[in-house]
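lol ok so funny story. i was supposed to be doing the assay writeup but got distracted and ended up predicting the structure for this chain instead. priorities right. anyway since i did it might as well share w the group, maybe its usefull for someone
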Amino acid sequence: MAVRSAIPATHINARFRHYLPARPLRHSIMEAMPRKIPRLLWLAVPLAYFLYFYRLDAAGLIGPDEPRYASIGREMARSGDWITPRLWGLPWFEKPALLYWMTGAGFRLGFGTEIAPRLPVALLAVAFLAFYWWTVRREFGCLAAGFATLILGTCGEWLGFSQVGAPDLPLAVTFSAAMLLAVPWIARKDARFLPAASALLGFAVLAKGLTPLVLAAPAIPAVWSVGRHAGEPGRPVPSFRDLLRLRVMAPFLVVALPWYLLCYLRNGMAFPIEFFWRHHFQRFTSGALLHGQPWWFYLPVFAGAFLPWTPLLPLVGRRAAFRDPRRLFLLAWVLFGLAVFSLSVNKLPGYVLPLLPAAALLVALALDEAVNARPWLAACALSLVAFPIAVPVLPAALASGLSRAPRPAFHWWWLSPAAVAAVVWLLETRGRRLAAVAVIATGATAGMLYVKQSALPRVDGIASARGLWRAIAGRAGDICIANIERNWVYGLNYYSVTPLPECSAQPRPLWLLQSPGQPPHLAPAPSSPDSMVDLVSPNVVLSPFRNRMK
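and the output, tada:
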């Protein structure tokens, strides 16, 4: 054991690893902290600021979802009714209350129209990364924790959803924290953290309904795997009876149950019918919500979500590593989630966000054990080209969809990641793997800064209603809404606070119209309804309450 502790894991040739005594799972909690980790923390502070908080309000609220959720949270803060979600006076039961509470707290604290819904989500993302490092270090050591935190913290999808006021990241944080706290129980029947895991699972149910309960099923094969090896000396076997104890079940019920019960008592059967039947079961089985995608949709989505670390995913395929029930649990967490979401008729890219922490940890463990990671890390460095490519694509993709975004023209600075790859190759050759990973993370931070500086102003102009509202606010009393896409309807109503009327119900001198593929524009009211050109397209609605699709 002295030899094992004296030689860093990354310097041990793989051919000799199996001759060394295995590190007992029960002592992983006492893993010593390498001297290099404080330096990593000094690097993490500026990286976290520029990645998560810098220019958080550079673009207005985007799409139909973000202004809709923010409007509900603002109404909760204004009215003091923290039970019934209301959108412009009407109950809206699409999502549970956690995000609305976070947004409402932001408004109560006096934050602005963009910061109030977004800052709580960004803070939650960063707080989880600190928790993530702590839990991974307890189980797998400091080096794996450093790898995993840098990888997850600079994943493209994790970064993207930390910048918007949507429930996807609160779900991913609370669910992943609960799953990570269950790892000691799965590995060695250490149930100390199960009550905290139970409470966090309750918050996950408050973030997005029944989804986290389904995603928690991977605990079953992990416990079964431990049971198969029950005869091994020194390995305690977890029992599902542990989960049924009052001290474990009570925190979940105390956290999750009150809001659901109070919302039902105030709103009657309208709440469970809309919330559970339509937005759970129909979303899974019916294409009526217009988010239908083929079964393989999440294969490219997951690969893109993990950028720039996607080239490391093949390292996870080493079969011998999954003799450890903890790794089997992490693998089941990812694969089961992908299977469930792939079976659903309706698919959105953000659904796989709760799977990224497990994937990042699996990749980190495989990277820690790799004999030669030079080609893998160099490929990650080259993948940083995704950031400059995203700059011309992102505004049009957010406004009209990725399939309608123009193909970007090549620029010479797209070759700059090659220099990062050369530095990473040199560092890995010299045995400084953590430094190589930190260099890639720093490159991802630079790429994200470039996106924020160059792409977000254009996003604000073509994918957010903030600029449009600023242009027409002085004449709002003369404007009514004709045929415009629901993205703009929700955004305009959020920024105007009092929704603009529909021209069909309350005609005004100026009509807000929209041609397909173009932002809305003002036009004089037609002399008669029959003279108005029909601009209706599949994504255009006359009222936000006629189409409650996500």
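The beta strands are 86-87, 90-91, 479-481, 484-485, 510-513, 521-524, 540-541. The first strand starts at residue 86 and ends at 87.
back to the writeup now i swear
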